[in-house]
Amino acid sequence: MAEGRSSDAPVREHLVDLLEGGGAHATFGEAVADLPAGLRGERPAGLPYSPWELLEHMRLAQWDIVEFSRGPGHDSPPWPGGYWPADPRPPDGRAWQRSIRVFERDRRQMIEFVRDPGRDLREPLNWGDGQTLLREALLVADHTAYHLGQLIVVRRLLGAWEE
């Protein structure tokens, strides 16, 4: 820790809590749990996305942010096509659980970055355009919370969510 600089441990732990979810919102695990396989690719009337599309979008966007945060050399997918699955339905019966596992793995990686005292939360990343690890962690948390809310609405409209 630099002389005169206060510890950022509390900020790091607040970020971890935010990334893990909960508090005022449903957690990622709660939002994706127990969704019947037959509903994962269904788009409710009037909405442009299925639970699968939302899950994959969250996974792809988080993966991109984590890989960018890891270091130089990451090429982001093209927007918007590279951030959404091509089909509203999962490609096979294992895809839903695989996507959940990868999402959780990437979230753990971001948490490791945030907890690493050797990584400055506020220092601009050398390979970016002014982005900081703090900004990237907040972006993951914000993006995930936004789309988890959508996923819960979709589940309600499909009759697959109970309070």
By CATH's scheme, which homologous superfamily applies? dinb family like domain
Proportion of residues in extended strands: under 5%
Number of helices: 5
Give helix and strand order, one letter per element, not per position: HHHHH
Explained architecture:
By secondary structure, the chain is mainly α. It has a single domain, classed as dinb family like domain (Four Helix Bundle (Hemerythrin (Met), subunit A)). It has five helices and no strands. It has helices spanning about 10-20, 30, 50-70, 95-115, 135-155. The longest helix has 25 residues, at about 135-155. The protein is globular, with a radius of gyration of 17 Å. The model is unreliable at about 1-5 (pLDDT under 50).
Task: Give the SSE layout.
Elements: H1 9-20, H2 28-32, H3 51-70, H4 95-115, H5 133-157
Helix pairs in contact: 1-4, 1-5, 3-4, 3-5, 4-5
Keywords:
single chain; about 160 residues; mainly alpha; Four Helix Bundle (Hemerythrin (Met), subunit A); 5 helices; globular; disordered N terminus
Task: Describe, in short, the structure shown.
This protein has 163 residues and is mainly alpha-helical. Helix 4 packs antiparallel against helix 5. The termini are far apart.
